[in-house]
Design goal:
- Helix content is 62%, strand content 15%.
- With 398 residues, it is an alpha+beta fold.
- The protein has 2 domains: 2-136 and 269-396, no CATH class; 157-248, no CATH class.
- It has a 5-stranded antiparallel beta sheet with strand order 1-2-3-4-5.
- Strand 3 and strand 4 form a beta hairpin.
- Helix 1 runs antiparallel to helix 2 (47-83) and helix 8 runs antiparallel to helix 9.
- It is elongated and about 85 Å long.
- 30% of the residues are buried.
């Protein structure tokens, strides 16, 4: 009986999880897909590079979509079981709600382990690979990420803004560049137009600016220097940016590029100011807390799905949206309380899991003891009424 129940629940849970994973991943990828299509059509990026880019982006998306898909899968599975009276049949056979939980938790632990591996190790490595690919592509075509009237800051120590882009002629018009590679105070370049030339072998980009001026603060306080030019060349050494931190004067890795052990080492070094240390600590604990949200969603999803006899698949889908919104709101609350100094970073990161987990344990106990949940029953009835109203509207016509 336990093995049969295990197979029965997983047989319904896994397909629902797969559908949710595909749907949520496609939603998150949609904006990126449009951008990449533009790269292919207008900016000459090869299809091979596009597939490599998608391969680098997927791990960071899966960190979010795996727990979300699991929540949707649990809600859809148990909503169907409830709506088709299978839960009553199980209880008639002596199977309590608690005996239905092990298969769900087993799958939840598996998803948590995969998510932890992604957020702790695979995600940072894929981010590094994506940055390397992006910088390498930029040496051949800076226009990959450059958009008109949008500040472009993907290149460390540089911010670029252009009014118009003419990729066919490697030309930009209305150019503004902020360069902070040589001095603490940035040097600002303004030019009517400029030509962009990349050297993939040397890993450099050269911007030949025309009819412009250079602005900078002088070494002496109160001195502002302006130099006008007809032609001026700004050189960006992308090859040097690809060198990781610790190998000379190369690019310093961003927080998202550090694995969990590297991030922990960064925190223990204690060389950062208070605000930066809080960011590092919060990011570290969030990477640990978010994968365990899968187990929290299992705890919360089962009792929410068993709302009432009227609960159906639409109820489960709508509840998954509500729970995810509540989770991210609690994440923002935890982050805000952490940066305000009210709670430590560890508590701020784990706040959503603690709140929703406690709620899930309480609701599970109420459902197992057959105690009524009037608020949730009313919610299920509301969704059912809305569903019937929409069906009548389509059936009768507008």
């Amino acid at each position: 009986m336990p093995l049969l129940l295990f197979r029965f629940l997983l047989g319904d849970l896994v397909p629902s999880f797969g559908v949710g994973l595909l749907a949520f991943t496609m939603v998150l990828l949609m904006e990126k897909v449009m951008r990449i299509v533009e790269w292919i059509v207008r900016k000459g990026v090869s299809v091979t590079d596009v597939f490599k880019i998608f391969g680098c982006l997927l791990p960071s998306f899966f960190v979010f979509t795996l727990p979300m898909a699991l929540l949707l899968g649990v809600l859809l599975t148990f909503s169907r079981i409830q709506s088709e009276n299978e839960m009553y049949a199980l209880k008639a056979c002596g199977v309590s709600l608690y005996r239905c939980l092990p298969p769900v938790y087993a799958f939840g632990v598996f998803i948590s382990a995969v998510s932890l591996f992604l957020t702790g190790w695979v995600g940072p490595h894929s981010t590094r690979t994506f940055q390397s690919m992006f910088f390498s592509m930029a040496t051949q075509n800076l226009f990959v990420g450059l958009k008109e009237r949008v500040f472009f800051d993907a290149l460390p120590n540089f911010v670029i803004y252009v009014e118009n882009v003419v990729p066919e002629q490697s030309l930009v018009k209305g150019v503004f560049i902020s360069d902070q590679t040589l001095t603490e105070q940035p040097v600002y370049y303004f030019a009517e137009e400029g030509e962009v030339h990349g050297n993939a072998e040397k890993g450099t980009i050269a911007l030949l600016l025309k009819n412009g001026a250079i602005h900078r603060l002088g070494d002496t306080r109160g001195i502002y220097q302006v130099a006008r030019f007809e032609r001026y060349r700004v050189k960006i050494n992308i090859g040097q940016m690809l060198i990781p931190r610790g190998a000379g004067k190369g690019r310093k890795r961003q927080m998202e590029e550090l694995t969990l052990p590297e991030l922990r080492k960064e925190i223990l070094e204690g060389t950062h100011d208070k605000k930066e240390a809080l960011k590092l600590g919060l990011n570290y604990h969030q990477r640990l807390a978010f994968p365990f949200a899968a187990i929290v969603f299992c705890t919360l999803g089962v009792p929410l799905a068993l709302l009432s006899q009227q609960a159906g698949r639409y109820t489960g889908f709508s509840l998954s949206i509500v729970v995810m919104l509540l989770f991210f709101v609690l994440m923002q609350v935890g982050s805000g309380l952490t940066f305000s100094g009210y709670i430590p970073a560890s508590l701020g990161a784990w706040l959503p899991n603690l709140v929703l987990g406690t709620m899930g344990v309480y609701l599970t106990w109420r459902k197992a003891e057959e105690k009524p949940l009037k608020v949730l029953d009313a919610y299920a009835q509301l969704v059912r009424n809305l569903q019937e109203a929409v069906q009548r509207r389509f059936r009768d016509g507008f």
